[in-house]
Design a protein that fits this description.
Two copies of one chain form a homodimer. Chain A folds into two domains: 183 residues, Quinone Oxidoreductase, Chain A, domain 1 (Alpha-Beta Complex); 113 residues, NAD(P)-binding Rossmann-like Domain (Rossmann fold), CATH 3.40.50. Chain A is 24% helix and 27% strand. The first copy, chain A, has ten helices and 18 strands. In chain A, the strands form four sheets. In chain A, strands 3, 5, 6, 9, 10, 17 and 18 form a seven-stranded mixed sheet that branches. In chain A, strands 13-12-11-14-15-16 form a six-stranded parallel sheet, with helices on both faces. The two termini of chain A are 12 Å apart. In chain A, 47% of the residues are buried.
Chain lengths: 314, 314
């Protein structure tokens, strides 16, 4: 089958072996696949992953021991947990130390004609949520993880630093809290959607700092430094970016300013689907370009510096 | 001037004295006034208040020492704080022990042709928020106080018990958190708006308890009992109702079930205005009837058992 993989080089192959159906898993044919910055970082060495790329998808279950799933339109959580360890026993599957991660860590991803995922990761997509919206469930859930981990109050001043793919989801989620929100970024050509939603968009030099809460989703070590400078004493800095390499941060100044640092990664899929069903998140204007999977190399080339690039599987 | 007052009896008078302009205050001509359940409870003895009723309004400043306010369209916080005590010094004006409260405690309310409020309570209404929406800012802020006080996570199951005036605001605010939400009430004739917004509405007998968080806005001691029964062990019960008389609650069972009880009253006006500007809250379908202020007695008679009854001041 066709698959887009990274083995030190980004390559499209036509003869990748089809995955076998494993116990407790489902084989899924993706309809639409999103390219995430994490995919691009993997091609730069992040996670030292080799295999089929991709973890953002909406697709149809084509094989599964539990026949009730066959034919269902689904999205899927990306962490395949062991379901037995103490993390799994407390319901914290994304932190199972035995987990494999779709297209990121020891598990082939979705950029292929077929891929496999545990049934326990699947969520059926309601008919009112179309494929163009459903393909955003994974990054939307990641944005929701911020409000799962942090109590963002309606009276707080909040800045999202980074106007890329993930920032576009995060500002739309934080807007719903009623907080006094600003998007800080370097791509004014992307701001009209957010401005229409009542979110002020600013260049870093124009930021009205300090803020009570700052979210860094710049995807760069230099962006983290900018974000940290905007946090008030006793404020919170939420880290959303994952990238290849270390970041430098003056931790003594975090002690002096008593700033809380909060990491936040994968989030709740059911809640993301609820927000899409309630028509509270716009996804259509975030789609920059569409490619076929067999044009995946061109899709990756186009994805850097764009909002969402999608790939369709015929 | 015309005024609707309670002095043991609800009375409309034509010759109530106009308020004097006090230092630091503004005289306001209300355009629209909302009737709240608290107003109805006051006529039953709540707070032992005698004077002009009412605290929900949108109006125009007609006199003020600071001329910049004159002619501004405003809404207003209802707690007139001393601005000097320790509560005020920590920014907690709604809990100033010296406060008077608009139409509720030692301060004439808004159901008159003119009333007075400290400038520090005023919020200018953006032009994009019309009077029919702005008159809901006070109850919407009260609903937002729940998410100001409690961290409601997108993964939590939440029930709002009470499908009245305040419940209508609360479910619309909680819907935005992404949580798994249900409205539990006894007025199916009011549910279509909420069902269109994707919120399941249920009779108490059909509740799918237990819930992680339950909000009681029934306005009745019996409703509190119902709400309490729906909270899971280690869950939270948020109290929003204020009414005349005591409530009975088995506190030992709260200890056994380790349930948190959280009182919540007045909330953040600026955040409420932001949600209305962002078009995230529907107010128009909540307006049950409109009266003129000089038909205030009829308006009060109509307000019991209805969603929002408004009074216009010519």
């Amino acid at each position: 089958m066709h698959a887009l993989l990274f083995d030190g080089t980004l390559r499209l192959t036509r003869d990748y072996p089809q995955p076998a159906l494993m116990a407790g898993e489902a084989l899924i044919r993706p309809h639409l696949i999103g390219i995430c910055n994490t995919d691009i970082e993997i091609t730069r060495g992040y996670m030292h992953f080799h295999g089929v790329l991709g973890h953002e998808f909406v697709g149809t279950v084509v094989a599964c021991a539990d026949e009730a799933w066959i034919g269902k339109r689904v999205v899927g959580e990306i962490n395949a947990a062991c379901l037995r360890c103490t993390a799994c026993q407390r319901g914290d599957f994304p932190h199972c130390p035995e987990r494999t991660t779709l297209g990121i860590d020891r598990r082939d991803g979705v950029m292929a004609e077929l891929f496999s995922l545990p049934i326990s990761c699947l969520h059926e997509v309601p008919s009112s949520v179309d494929d163009d919206a459903a393909v955003f469930v994974e990054p939307l859930a990641a944005a929701l993880e911020i409000v799962e981990r942090c109590h963002i109050r309606p009276t707080e001043r909040v800045a999202v630093v980074g106007d890329g793919k993930l920032g576009a989801m995060i500002v739309q989620v934080l807007r719903l809290t009623g907080c006094d929100l600003a998007l800080i970024g370097r791509h004014p050509e992307r701001w009209s959607l957010f401005q229409q939603q009542g979110i002020p968009c600013l260049a870093p030099a124009d930021a009205n700092a300090p803020y009570d809460v700052v979210v860094d989703c710049t995807g760069q070590a230099s962006g983290l430094k900018t974000a940290r400078a905007f946090v008030r004493p006793r404020g919170r800095l939420v880290l959303k970016s994952t990238y290849h390499g270390d970041s430098a941060l003056n931790l003594s100044m975090l002690v002096v300013d008593e700033v809380e640092l909060i990491g936040s990664r994968c989030g709740p899929f059911a809640a993301a689907l609820r927000l899409l069903e309630r028509r509270l998140i716009e996804t259509q204007p975030l789609i920059s370009a569409r490619y076929a999977l067999h044009d995946g190399i061109a899709a990756f080339a186009a994805a850097t510096g764009q909002l969402k690039v999608l790939m369709a599987v015929a």
